[in-house]
Specification:
Blueprint lengths: L2 H34 L31 E5 L3 H18 L7 E5 L19 E5 L3 H12 L6 E6 L4 H14 L2 E6 L12 E7 L15 E9 L5 E8 L2 E3 L16
Parallel strand pairs: 1-5, 1-6, 2-3, 2-4, 4-5
Antiparallel strand pairs: 6-7, 7-8, 8-9
C-alpha cells in the first residue's frame, strides 16, 4: 500500500475525530452557558407554567427560572396588567411548594385580596415599602440571596446594565427568580436580564350566560430573550390557568429598539 495514502487517511481520521470533539465541546459549552442564564434542560423535569406557545420560544421550551426578567411598564394600566400576569406566573411557580414572594415598591398599589383571583394567597406575599430607588435595588439583591423565597418582584424606574448584571449573578447562586417592573417612560437602556416583556391590557370578552366582566386578558410581548425568539401573543386567565383565546401564530418582533 502506498505510504502517502496511509498518511493521508490517518490525517483525515484525525481531522474527523477533532471535528467530533469540537462539536461535543461546543455543545457542552452552549449548555453550560444556558444553565448560567437560567435556561434548564427540558429533561430535568422542570415545572411548566402553562404558558403554552410562549414557553416554546425559550431555549429547551422551558420558562427560565433562577433568572431575572424585566417588564416595561410605562403606564399605570400597563403596571396593573403586568401585576396580574405576574400573579398568574407566581401561582404556577408556587404550585408544587409552599413558596413565598417578596414584593418591593415605593408606592404599594397592589390590592392583596385581589391575588386570590389568581390562586395566590395574600399571606404568601411579603410587601416591603421603601422610598429611595437605591434602597429598593439593595433590598431586591438581598432578597434574591434568600433561597427560601420562590421569587422577588421590585418596581424600579431605572436600572443600569452593571446593576442588572449583579442581580443576574446573584440568582445564578440562589436560583430564586427575579422580576423587575421598570416604570420609567424614559429611554429603555440595555440590561443583563434574561428576557424583556411588555404586558398590555386588552378588553375582556364577556362569556355567554355569565354576568359582569369577562376574564383578565392581555397582549403579551416578549421583546427580547437570550437565545430565544421574541413574539407577541394574546393570553387570558381563566379557570385558574393561562389560556389562548385566539389560535393565532407567534408574531415575530422586528425592527425594535429594545436595548
Amino acid at each position: 500500500m502506498n505510504t502517502n495514502n496511509i498518511s493521508i487517511n490517518f490525517v483525515a481520521i484525525l481531522i474527523m475525530k477533532n471535528q467530533e470533539f469540537n462539536k461535543d465541546l461546543i455543545a457542552k459549552l452552549q449548555n453550560d452557558i444556558l444553565l448560567l442564564q437560567g435556561f434548564k434542560p427540558a429533561s430535568n423535569g422542570n415545572q411548566q407554567l402553562g404558558l403554552g406557545q410562549i414557553e416554546s420560544v425559550f431555549p429547551n421550551a422551558v420558562f427560565p427560572t433562577g433568572a431575572i426578567h424585566e417588564f416595561i411598564c410605562t403606564k399605570n394600566e400597563d403596571t396593573a396588567a403586568t401585576q396580574g400576569f405576574l400573579t398568574g406566573i407566581l401561582k404556577m411557580l408556587m404550585l408544587e411548594e409552599d413558596g413565598y414572594c417578596l414584593y418591593i415598591s415605593k408606592n404599594r398599589n397592589l390590592f392583596p385580596t385581589a391575588l386570590q383571583a389568581y390562586g395566590v394567597q395574600p399571606h404568601h406575599i411579603i410587601f416591603v415599602d421603601l422610598e429611595r430607588e437605591r434602597d429598593i435595588l439593595w433590598a431586591m439583591e438581598e432578597g434574591l440571596k434568600c433561597k427560601q423565597l420562590t421569587a422577588v418582584i421590585a418596581e424600579l424606574r431605572e436600572i443600569t446594565f452593571a446593576q442588572s448584571r449583579r442581580l443576574q449573578l446573584t440568582v445564578a447562586q440562589s436560583q430564586v427568580t427575579g422580576f423587575l417592573l421598570r416604570t420609567s417612560s424614559a429611554k429603555i437602556t440595555p440590561t443583563a436580564c434574561v428576557a424583556r416583556w411588555k404586558i398590555t391590557p386588552l378588553e375582556s370578552e364577556q362569556k355567554e350566560g355569565l354576568p359582569g366582566l369577562g376574564f383578565p386578558k392581555w397582549q403579551v410581548e416578549l421583546l427580547r430573550v437570550k437565545n430565544g425568539n421574541p413574539g407577541i401573543w394574546q393570553i387570558e386567565w381563566a379557570a385558574d390557568r393561562f389560556t389562548f383565546p385566539t389560535a393565532t401564530a407567534v408574531v415575530p418582533v422586528q425592527h425594535r429598539q429594545i436595548g
